[in-house]
Design a protein that fits this description.
Length: 397
C-alpha cells in the first residue's frame, strides 16, 4: 500500500476527545465517571434559539446557503461585534462556519506556508499548533506562566518575533487557564504587531464568559482592524456545541480566500443552524446570564474544594469555564500520569495540562461546565485519591 501524505503526520489532536473515549469505555464496564474533561456547557440551548432552528426546518430551510453564510446572520454578527466589542467589521467581512474551529483552519491555511513562523500560547488550544505545522509553518510557543496569572511576558514575546514571524495567535479569556489579557497587554501586543507587520488571530470565543475584569478586543487598537481576524462562535455562550455554528471577522484581503476554503471544504453551514444563530446573537436570551451566574458559583466552589486538598493549589480564573490547578505538590507523577490515575483510580475525567503544550506540565485542566453536585463529588473523589496516593509509597504502586 502506498503511504499517506506526510502532512497527516504533522496533525495534532484534541486530547479531550480521547479522554472522553477512555472514560466512556470505563463506563461501559460499569464504572461511574464524573466528566470534567470536555469543554462544553451542560445547559440546554436557550428555548427561543432552538425554536428558531426548528421553525426554519419546518419552513423547509434545509438547503444550501451561500458559502460565507446567510446575509441576515452576517449582518447580525457585524452588528453584535460593533455593539459588544466596539469593532466595525462589515457584514461582508464575516464568514460563518460549522463551529468556530474551521476559522483556525482557514485563517492559518490562508496565511501560513513553509518558512513562516507563528507564535501561539502555550498552554493553549491544541489545534493552533496542529494547524500551524499542518500548513508547513513553524509554531513558536509563547509560555503563559502561573506566577504571571497566565498573562504572557511581553519582553519574551518581543524576543520570539523574527523576520519570519507572520502571525500571532491570542486567546482571551483563555482555554485552558481562564486567564484574561489586560488592556495594557493588549495595547503592547498591538504595538508589536504593528511594528513587525504581523497578522493577529484573536480567538474571542469566551469573550462573554467573564467573571472579573473586562474583555478588550485587540482589533480596537490603532491599525489593528486591518490585521486582526476575530474568531468567535455560538458553542460556548449559547450552549450550542452540537449545532456547529461559528464565525470569523476578517480583514478585507482575506475574505475571498477564506470563502473559497469554505466552498472547497464544507460548502456552507446548515441553514436552520444559522437561523437559530440570528435569534441567539440578536436577542441574547435570558438563559445566557443565568448560565454565567451558575458558572461563577461553580468556579468558586471548585476552586475552594481543590485548594483544600493537600498538594493542590488552584488560582481563581477570571473567565471561560476551566480551572488549571497546580498538582505538582501531589508528587504522583507528571501531569499526564496524574490525569490518567485520577481517571482510572478516582473516576474523574480530567485533562493533563500538557495536553495544551509543554508549558502545562504540573497542571490539570478541569472544566466546571458541570453541576455543583458533580463538582463536589469530583473534589471528594480527588481528595480521597490524593490522600491514599500520598500514603502509598511510590515503589508500591
Ligand atoms: C479556545 C477555543 N477556540 C475555539 C473552540 C472551538 O469551538 P467550536 O465548538 O465552535 O468549534 C474552542 C472549543 O473548545 C476553544 O476552546
Amino acid at each position: 500500500m502506498r503511504p499517506l501524505a506526510k502532512r497527516i503526520g504533522r496533525l495534532g489532536t484534541e486530547t479531550a476527545f480521547e479522554v472522553l473515549a477512555r472514560a466512556r469505555a470505563l463506563e461501559a464496564k460499569g464504572r461511574h465517571i464524573v466528566h470534567l474533561e470536555i469543554g462544553e456547557p451542560d445547559f440546554d440551548t436557550p428555548r427561543a434559539v432552538s425554536a428558531a432552528g426548528i421553525a426554519a426546518i419546518e419552513r423547509g430551510e434545509t438547503h444550501y446557503t451561500p458559502s460565507a453564510g446567510i446575509p441576515e446572520l452576517r449582518e447580525a454578527i457585524s452588528a453584535y461585534l460593533e455593539r459588544a466589542r466596539g469593532v466595525r467589521y462589515e457584514p461582508g467581512q464575516v464568514v460563518v462556519t460549522p463551529g468556530a474551529k474551521p476559522i483556525m483552519f482557514y485563517a492559518i491555511l490562508a496565511l501560513l506556508e513553509s518558512g513562516d513562523e507563528a507564535i501561539y500560547p502555550d498552554p493553549g488550544f491544541p489545534i493552533y499548533a496542529s494547524m500551524i505545522s499542518f500548513a508547513g509553518a513553524r509554531g513558536v510557543p509563547l509560555a503563559l506562566r502561573e506566577e504571571r496569572d497566565f498573562v504572557p511576558d511581553l519582553d519574551e514575546l518581543r524576543r520570539l518575533v523574527t523576520p519570519r514571524t507572520k502571525l500571532i495567535i491570542l486567546n482571551s479569556p483563555h482555554n485552558p487557564t481562564g486567564g484574561i489579557l489586560s488592556a495594557e497587554a493588549v495595547r503592547e501586543i498591538a504595538r508589536i504587531a504593528r511594528e513587525h507587520d504581523l497578522w493577529v488571530l484573536s480567538d474571542e470565543i469566551y469573550a462573554e464568559l467573564i467573571y472579573e475584569g473586562e474583555h478588550r478586543s485587540i482589533a480596537l487598537e490603532e491599525g489593528l482592524l486591518e490585521r486582526t481576524i476575530i474568531l468567535d462562535g455560538f458553542s460556548k455562550t449559547f450552549a450550542m456545541t452540537g449545532w456547529r455554528l461559528g464565525y470569523g471577522a476578517f480583514p478585507k484581503p482575506l475574505v475571498e480566500a477564506v470563502t473559497k476554503l469554505a466552498t472547497n471544504s464544507v460548502s456552507c453551514t446548515a441553514t436552520f443552524t444559522q437561523r437559530a444563530g440570528v435569534v441567539a446573537i440578536s436577542q441574547r436570551p435570558p438563559e445566557v446570564d443565568r448560565m454565567l451566574a451558575a458558572f461563577r458559583e461553580r468556579r468558586d466552589a471548585l476552586v475552594r474544594g481543590l485548594n483544600a486538598i493537600e498538594g493542590i493549589t488552584c488560582r481563581t480564573p477570571h473567565g471561560a469555564f476551566y480551572v488549571f490547578p497546580n498538582v505538582a505538590g501531589l508528587r504522583a507523577g507528571d501531569a499526564a500520569q496524574v490525569a490518567s490515575r485520577i481517571l482510572t483510580e478516582a473516576g474523574v475525567a480530567v485533562l493533563a495540562g500538557t495536553a495544551f503544550g509543554a508549558a502545562g506540565e504540573g497542571h490539570l485542566r478541569l472544566s466546571y461546565a458541570n453541576s455543583l453536585e458533580n463538582l463536589s463529588l469530583a473534589v471528594e473523589r480527588i481528595g480521597d485519591w490524593a490522600r491514599s496516593a500520598r500514603s502509598t509509597p511510590a515503589a508500591a504502586r
